[in-house]
Structures are given as structure tokens and as C-alpha cells.
Amino acid sequence: MTTTPRPIALVTGASRGIGRAIAVDLGRTHHVIVQGRDQGALDALAAELPSATTWAAELTGDGALDGFLAAGPDGSLTTLDVLVHSAGVIGGSTVEATSRDEWRRVLEVNVVAVAEITRVALPALRAARGTVIVINSGAGFTSRGDGGVYAASKFAVRAFADALRQEERAHGVRVSSVHPGQVDTDMQREIQDSRGNAYQADKYLGASDIADAVRMVVDLPPRAVAEVVSVRPLALG
Ligand SMILES: NC(=O)c1ccc[n+]([C@@H]2O[C@H](COP(=O)([O-])OP(=O)(O)OC[C@H]3O[C@@H](n4cnc5c(N)ncnc54)[C@H](OP(=O)(O)O)[C@@H]3O)[C@@H](O)[C@H]2O)c1
Questions:
Q1: What atom of ligand 1 comes closest to residue 180's alpha carbon?
Q2: How far is the CA of 87 from the centre of ligand 1 (A)?
Q3: What's the pLDDT at 68?
Q4: Of 67, 99, 160, 167, whose CB count within 10 A is highest?
Q5: How do beta strands 228-231 and 31-36 pair?
Q6: CATH 3.40.50.720 at 8-182+208-231, yes or no
């Protein structure tokens, strides 16, 4: 009996939080390449999944993508069915208090790395008529005081996704932006701590809720693309 090879998904930011939940869910049906910086966390996740390989990488700076194309199931990456960009950072404060280096750090992870990984992966995505999913944020639509740096990065990556969607339509590649509200993760804890707020885990979304939204995007018929998906906690709006 021959078995059909699994479709391949790459999930960045899979060591923790939303990316990890997405990798676990996609792992039911896909070979998953899990990216993060912590090799131990990636190995532990890969051991839980039926079929997975790891790609440990710091996504900023020169050489960030070294090893990327070798992270596929057979040591190469000629087709890629799903690319989920979940790696991201929060940062900055007021415009007055935010340095050039901090602007660069946030934009480098949340925007430049997303564009660069996508660019390198495009031949494999086109070969598979794949799906690119950018985990954006409510901050990709609305900017608030104290949050301009993060919002600017998420506005920018929304613009990136909108442009990519138009460019890749003719190649059969679908592009989706998924915009979560507050999700119970390390990042949300950091946000609430920085504002001096109580942490209300019971009111936030769970990371698996975003994994469910990504699953819906992936499982749509190939002729349909979920261009923009906003998922908000019912209790908070
Ligand atoms: N949590 C929320 O409420 C919320 C709401 C809306 C949108 N989002 C978005 O959802 C995505 C995931 O957020 P999360 O809450 O899951 O965050 P998280 O728990 O803080 O996890 C962040 C992930 O990104 C990776 N990462 C960060 N900087 C990196 C770098 N320089 N190079 C390589 N990997 C890096 C981390 O890897 P390491 O483990 O190696 O650090 C980790 O896997 C982000 O894009 C975020 O903006 C989150």
C-alpha cells in the first residue's frame, strides 16, 4: 500500500502561544515545520506531532533565513501548502519615549521577517498553490496612544498581505490576514503588565480559538479565500 505524503505547513513562532496552538492543530493533517528560537521547545513540540521538523532561527538580521529551505521533511522545501506567520513581538510605548532601535526591532520581526520568509518561500508556495496566513491583530486596524509602534507594524503587515494577495492570485496562492483580539499568551501578559492592568485570562480568547480560525481558512475550498478574519473575545468586544 502506498501512502500519500502529507501536505506541508510552516508555522513561525511555534515555540509558544498562538503559533504553538496552530502547529498542534495543523499537525493533525500536515507535516509541520515549527519555527522559534528555543530548540528545546521546538523539539518537545515536534515529538508531540505525527510528522514535524524544526527550524530554530532568530528572524532578525543577516543570515536569518539560513537553514530555512533545508527544514522540509526530506531536507528541502520544493512545495509548501501553508505558511503561517505567527512570530511577533510587542514593543515601544509613546512616540516620545520610543527609540529608533526599538522601532527597528519591532518592524524587523513583525514586518520585514514576514516579507522575507514569504519571498524565499514563494516558489514552493506557487508549486503547491498554497495559502499564506498572517497573524495580525486588532491593532492592524486601530492605533492607540502608547501602542503606535506595534500598531504601525500591524498596519504595515496588513498592507503587505493585501498587496501579496493581488500579486499571487494568478499563481493560485491564497493570502489571509487573521486579526485576533486579546489572547491568553505570554504576549498578552506582557501587555497587561506594562499597562498595570489585572490579567483577566477568563475573558480572553484561548490560543486554540485562533488555531480554529486558521483551520477554517486552510480548509476552505481552493477557489475561496478568507481575505480578512477578525476574531474577538465575546466578553470584551
Ligand atoms: N496574544 C495576543 O493577545 C495577540 C493578539 C493579537 C495578535 N497577536 C499576534 O499573534 C502572534 C503570536 O503572538 P503570541 O501571543 O503567541 O506571542 P508569544 O506568546 O509572545 O510568542 C511569540 C512567538 O514569536 C517568536 N519570536 C518572537 N521574536 C522572535 C524573533 N526575533 N525571532 C524568531 N522568533 C521570534 C517567539 O519565539 P521564542 O519562543 O524563541 O521567543 C514565540 O514563538 C503575534 O504576531 C502577535 O502580534 C497576539
A1: 6
A2: 4
A3: 85
A4: 160
A5: unpaired
A6: yes
Nearest ligand 1 atom to the CA of 59 is 32
Residue 2's pLDDT is 58
pLDDT tens for 55-86 read 999 999 888 888 888 888 889 899 999 999 99
Nearest-angstrom CA–CA distance, 151 and 144? 8
Annotated domain spans of the chain: 8-182+208-231
Q: 15 CA to middle of ligand 1, Å? A: 9
Residues with CB under 6 A from ligand 1: 13, 15-19, 36-38, 58-60, 86-89, 109, 135, 137, 180, 182-183, 185-188
Burial label for 108, CB within 10 Å (0-12, 13-18, 19+), is middle
Q: Does the pLDDT value for residue 34 go beyond 90? A: yes
| β-sheet with 131-135: strand ranges across | 52-56, 31-36, 8-11, 82-85, 131-135, 174-180, 228-231
Q: 82-85 and 131-135 as β-strands: parallel, antiparallel, unpaired?
A: parallel
Helices (H), 108-147: 113-128
Confidence of residue 19 (pLDDT cuts 50, 70, 90): very high
What DSSP state is assigned to residue 205? B
C-alpha 205 to ligand 1 mean position (Å): 15
**191: alpha, beta or left? (left if phi > 0; alpha if psi -120 to 50):** alpha
Measured at the CA of 120, the angle between CA 118 and CA 121, to 5 degrees, comes to 60
